[in-house]
Design goal:
The complex is a heterodimer of chains A (about 350) and B (about 325).
Chain A (H helix, E strand, L loop, with lengths): L1 H26 L8 E5 L10 H16 L2 E5 L6 H13 L4 E5 L4 H10 L4 E5 L16 E6 L1 H16 L1 E8 L4 H20 L3 E11 L6 H13 L2 E7 L2 H15 L5 E6 L7 E3 L2 E2 L1 E7 L1 H14 L7 E4 L6 E2 L9 H16 L14
Parallel strand pairs in A: 1-2, 1-3, 3-4, 4-5, 5-13, 6-7, 6-8, 8-9, 9-12
Antiparallel strand pairs in A: 10-11, 12-14
Chain B lengths: L1 H30 L7 H19 L6 H27 L4 H24 L4 E2 L18 H5 L5 H19 L1 H11 L1 H6 L4 H28 L1 E2 L6 H11 L4 H20 L4 H4 L3 H19 L19
Antiparallel strand pairs in B: 1-2
The chains are: A alpha/beta (about 350), B mainly alpha (about 325).
Chain lengths: ~350, ~325
């Protein structure tokens, strides 16, 4: 008898709770000054030194600067249902701005932007669609892309100038646009340096590969080992965990005195390539300022100028891409030349194609 | 083809060795009658312990830190496997369920510890183990290139352990008793063998070896702990069955997996292999394993009592 009464009471409490929560959700939307910013992580962890971490750092910085509450949730898997569940959880907890990094969120955001029309969504590196790639960016969503090809281009020029001659290779993760554009831009960068600065850096078709995943560390190490064995001097890795394996291989070779290099990706990977004292095998890194993009969007929302419905591109003109400010492995001359090349890129004197054309893969 | 094999051999061996030592750990456990599908989790524990110990010590003792890390992994792996041993041997729990629990808790616990102690779920070591050509032996034509160039010291350590395990399991009274516990524990018991103690020892050896395997992954080809062993533990388990619970069989099976996976991984950059579709190469080892398991299923050499809790009163 007693048990029964308690359970009735509990059910009653739960129902009241639901009603209150439902109301709470609707009421807080008018107030844009203090909102909560949530993030759902893509495959991998929050400290992946890449996509998730970059996004999260931007969100946290914005949260600290503007006194906003921030939180991230890690889905159990990487399916659309997993993502939608976590987006729903954030929404139910009162988060009205949700940042999601990675193209895998495209279909989830497509649904979420309708379902939670009073929340703002930031989709980095993707555009919402219904699985058919017909992009639909609603007024409460902004889709952000980076000019990876420009980033790869600058890194390619820098690497070619520093190496002067020899062979270079490329290891990509999955064959998706963001990775492909890095590759194509990199090849154009090498070509540009060969044409304009008289460097003699070669790239062979067999040394341009997409491993097919972002987490196969062993394959990354083995691919890099094969390339280095064939005489490749530097490898551009745009491959997440696969790149970790390649960096590890380069480190163990550098330690025995072999001249091998890696060009890092997404963030400044210099410290990850340190093999002795302060010597690193990372020549430079092709960065995209994911943190900046996330920060800017939170800032825009706070200012009431959230660019909903737009597809933004972060490129050289708004400093959304580039190589790190400090590159201990680049000589001062190279650094100077690169600064000029970057200025030409910003001024539109150099254009980098984001299509394959007659480039390798 | 031989050129290609010679080209990839050092890396294939590096990939094989952690599989081999982990499968060898599984061999001890299963031979004593305890199925251990927690090998994957035990590898993760070894990876974490190894990476963590090495990052703490490598600035003070560069070089020896790696060996201390391997030793720490062995010890922690043996202790961690006591969870499985206690559940399966003392409490007579279902061994498969306990193994799954080990796999689940290992990944979560190590990532949790890594986050809280180092501030990041990924632990990267600065210096990995160096590769050396073995003097004289590496000059032998073909064989020298295949086995003695760019080899890690851990490769030889594991091969010595393989030889030692074979000797202990098949040439000593201790090994005979251990195997008896896996074939017919009641007979062993009536002959005065302490079945529980034997099984505890065997499970601890499996924990120690698997954790060593995980730590070897860290100090050789991966260089970074990231909370997962990427299925290597399960691959080792498959190799154990494919190798028919025999040390030499396991060596063959793991080498097969190692070479086949490496060929699949590097096929894109080796012109001779590039024309074969990558998907074929990638699925090849698994398809062969499936076929082998079907073929061997009639004549399986699995220990008779593997998977059954030992109940002294039930004869």
């Amino acid at each position: 008898m007693f048990n029964k009464r308690i359970s009735v009471l509990l059910v009653g409490l739960l129902m009241v709770g639901l009603v209150v929560a439902g109301c709470g959700g609707g009421a807080s939307t008018e107030n844009t000054a203090a909102f909560k910013v949530g993030m759902v992580t893509d495959a991998g962890t929050i400290d992946d030194k890449s996509f998730n971490q970059g996004t999260w750092e931007g969100v946290v910085k914005a949260g600290e600067d503007f006194g906003l509450e921030t939180k991230y949730l890690k889905p159990n898997g990487t399916t659309e249902a997993d993502y939608i569940k976590e987006i729903g959880n954030l929404y139910d907890a009162g988060y009205r701005m949700i940042v999601t990094p990675g193209y895998k969120f495209e279909t989830a955001i497509f649904q979420a932007q309708d379902k939670y029309s009073d929340a703002k969504f930031v989709l980095i590196d993707g555009t919402p669609h219904n699985g058919d790639y017909n992009s639909v960016v609603k007024d409460n969503t902004v889709s952000i892309f980076f000019a990876e090809h420009e980033s790869g281009f600058v890194a390619g020029v820098a690497a070619a100038l520093q190496l002067q001659e020899g062979q270079v290779g490329f290891i990509g993760g999955m064959e998706i646009p963001a990775v492909q554009k890095y590759n194509w831009g990199f090849q154009q960068g090498i070509q540009y340096a060969n044409d304009n600065f008289d460097t003699k850096v070669a790239m062979q078709a067999e040394n341009v590969v997409y491993q097919g995943s972002f987490d196969n560390v062993a394959a990354g190490q083995q691919l890099a080992a094969q390339m280095y064995d064939k005489g490749v001097k530097a490898i551009f890795t745009a491959a997440g965990g696969v790149g970790v394996g390649a960096i590890n291989e380069a480190k163990s070779r550098a330690k025995t005195g072999q001249e091998v290099w890696i060009i890092g990706v997404d963030v400044d990977q210099f410290t990850e390539g340190i093999y002795e004292g302060d010597k690193s095998i990372i020549i430079t890194s092709a960065m995209k300022r994911i943190d900046q993009a996330a920060y800017d969007m939170v800032n825009a929302e706070k200012e009431g100028s959230f660019p909903g419905g737009e597809t933004l591109v972060f490129d050289s003109t708004n400093n959304g891409i580039g190589i790190p400010v400090q590159n201990p492995n680049l000589s001062d001359d190279v650094q100077k030349q690169i600064t000029d090349v970057f200025k030409d890129l910003q001024a539109g004197k150099i254009t980098v194609s984001d299509e394959q054309g007659d480039l390798i893969k | 083809m031989l050129d290609v094999i010679i080209l990839i051999s050092p890396y294939a061996i590096a990939y094989t060795i952690p599989l081999l030592i982990t499968a060898l750990g599984g061999l001890f456990s299963e031979r004593s009658g305890i199925v251990n599908i927690g090998l994957e989790g035990l590898m993760v524990v070894g990876m974490f312990t190894g990476a963590f110990t090495i990052t703490k010590l490598e600035t003070v003792f560069p070089g020896t830190a790696i060996w201390i890390g391997l030793l720490a992994a062995i010890i922690v792996g043996a202790i961690f496997s006591l969870l499985h041993a206690f559940a399966c041997i003392t409490l007579n729990a279902d061994q498969v369920i306990s193994g799954i629990a080990i796999n689940m808790i290992a990944g979560a616990l190590t990532t949790f510890l890594a986050r809280n102690i180092t501030g990041s779920g990924n632990i990267q070591i600065l210096y990995s183990l160096g590769r050396k050509n073995i003097p004289i032996l590496s000059d032998i034509p073909v064989l020298g290139k295949l086995f003695f160039t760019m080899s890690y010291p851990t490769t030889w350590l594991v091969l010595v352990l393989l030889l030692g395990s074979w000797f202990i399991l098949f040439k000593t009274p201790f090994g005979l008793r251990l195997r008896a516990c896996g074939e017919h524990p009641h007979a062993a018991d009536s002959a005065g063998v302490n079945v529980h103690r034997m099984r505890y020892i065997a499970v601890m050896v499996s924990g120690a070896f698997s954790a060593l395997g995980g730590a070897i992954v860290i100090v050789t080809y991966s260089g970074e702990f990231n909370g997962t062993a990427a299925g290597l533990g399960f691959l080792a388990l498959a190799a154990l069955i494919f190798g028919q619970w025999k040390p030499l069989g396991i060596l063959g099976a793991t080498a097969f997996f190692g070479f086949a996976s490496t060929i699949a991984n590097v096929s894109q950059v080796v012109p001779a292999l590039a024309q074969i579709p990558g998907i074929l190469l990638k699925t090849f080892p698994y398809v062969v394993t499936l076929i082998a398991l079907v073929v061997f299923s009639k004549t399986s050499q699995a220990p008779q009592a593997a998977g059954e809790p030992f109940d002294k009163g039930k004869r």
